[in-house]
Design a protein that fits this description.
Pathway: Amino-acid biosynthesis; L-histidine biosynthesis; L-histidine from 5-phospho-alpha-D-ribose 1-diphosphate: step 1/9. The chain has about 250 residues and is α/β, with parallel strands linked by helices. It has two domains: about 140 residues, Periplasmic binding protein-like II (D-Maltodextrin-Binding Protein, domain 2); about 90 residues, Periplasmic binding protein-like II (D-Maltodextrin-Binding Protein, domain 2, 3-Layer(aba) Sandwich). The protein is about 35% helix and about 25% strand. The chain has a six-stranded mixed β-sheet with strand order 2-3-1-4-11-5, with helices on both faces. A five-stranded mixed β-sheet has the order 8-7-9-6-10. β2 and β3 form a beta hairpin. About 35% of the residues are buried. Bound molecules: adenosine-5'-triphosphate (ATP) and 1-O-pyrophosphono-5-O-phosphono-alpha-D-ribofuranose. The site of adenosine-5'-triphosphate (ATP) has 18 residues, from α1, α2 and α3.
Length: about 250
């Protein structure tokens, strides 16, 4: 199935003439918090105003004079990197799967932001996989239309997507859809809204991502950053994620 993608003709060829600082796109929110100890360890800590909520700035210097950080929405990290606006970035595998940009190379699993993309439905309804086998279509509310269409198409079901950007949990109780596809970690958001997880589509962690053209044009600098992350991960492995996140809070 062809997933429609934005036209990503780069406004400029990443790194071709530009020898200024490399640009690392980071998502604001939980991943920024979780990745901060790793950035410290790798000598890439952004200026303190990047981590606070008060600054209106979006671009920040880091400890590394050849690296700046831009703080963007989680879903936009992949688009900034695929278009070459940012050379590298960090985002959830959910975002990578949704866009499936060929311009992106994802060399490292950072082991943070662990959760899953799942199908959920009202807890009061039975879940019978054999009933799904009889469906030809189903209405699903989600912020992941491509992942959702692919998952149901593989089961011979046409997913009619209600595309929301948040509060998907409301959709079944308000009659917008029968199912939702959303991120689940502890399951408490689903439970609080009378839903339950019925199928896990995929497990998710956050990835370091790189623009393929930038990797070709500035291989030493980008290779050094990838190694910096790899060494930082070895020094402070993902099993310590909760501890690291708590320490940084
Ligand atoms: N409950 C969770 N537990 C662990 N990781 C999560 C959880 N929810 C989201 N993630 C991961 O963190 C990423 C960012 O999610 P987050 O909820 O911080 O941002 P968002 O609200 O989707 O983004 P934005 O509002 O900026 O568009 C997700 O893409 C996913 O990879
Ligand atoms: O299974 P749980 O542990 O409850 O986690 C799942 C929730 O976490 C995320 O929301 P988040 O807390 O980031 O709020 P958001 O709706 O603003 O994205 C996600 O969108 C789910 O709603």
């Amino acid at each position: 199935m062809t997933v429609p993608q934005p036209d990503l003709q780069p406004a400029r060829s990443p790194g071709a003439q530009d020898r200024g600082p490399l640009v690392l796109a980071l998502p604001k929110g939980r991943i920024l918090k979780a990745v901060t100890p790793l950035l410290d360890q790798a000598g890439m800590a952004p200026s303190p105003d990047c981590l606070g909520d008060n600054s209106r700035k979006l671009r920040f210097p880091t400890q590394n004079p050849m690296l700046d950080v831009v703080r963007v929405r989680s879903f936009d990290v992949a688009t900034f990197v695929a278009s070459g606006g940012a050379h590298i970035g960090i985002c959830g595998a959910d975002v990578l799967m949704e866009f499936d940009y060929p311009e992106i190379y994802a060399p490292l699993d950072l082991g943070i932001g662990g959760c899953r993309v799942s199908v959920a439905q009202p807890a009061s309804l039975p879940h019978d996989p054999q009933e799904w086998a009889r469906w030809s279509e189903v209405r699903v509310a989600t912020k992941y239309p491509a992942i959702t269409r692919r998952f149901f198409a593989a089961r011979g079901i046409n997913a009619n997507i209600v595309h929301l950007h948040g509060a998907m949990e409301l959709a079944p109780m308000l009659g917008l859809s029968r199912l939702i596809v959303d991120l689940v970690d502890t399951g408490s958001t689903l439970r609080a809204n009378g839903l339950r997880e019925v199928e896990t589509i995929t497990h998710i962690t956050s990835r370091l991502i790189v623009n393929r053209t930038a990797l070709k044009t500035r291989p030493e600098e980008i290779g050094a950053l990838i190694n910096g992350f790899r060494n930082a991960l070895e020094a402070s492995p993902p099993a310590a994620e909760k501890t690291r996140a708590e320490q940084s809070s």
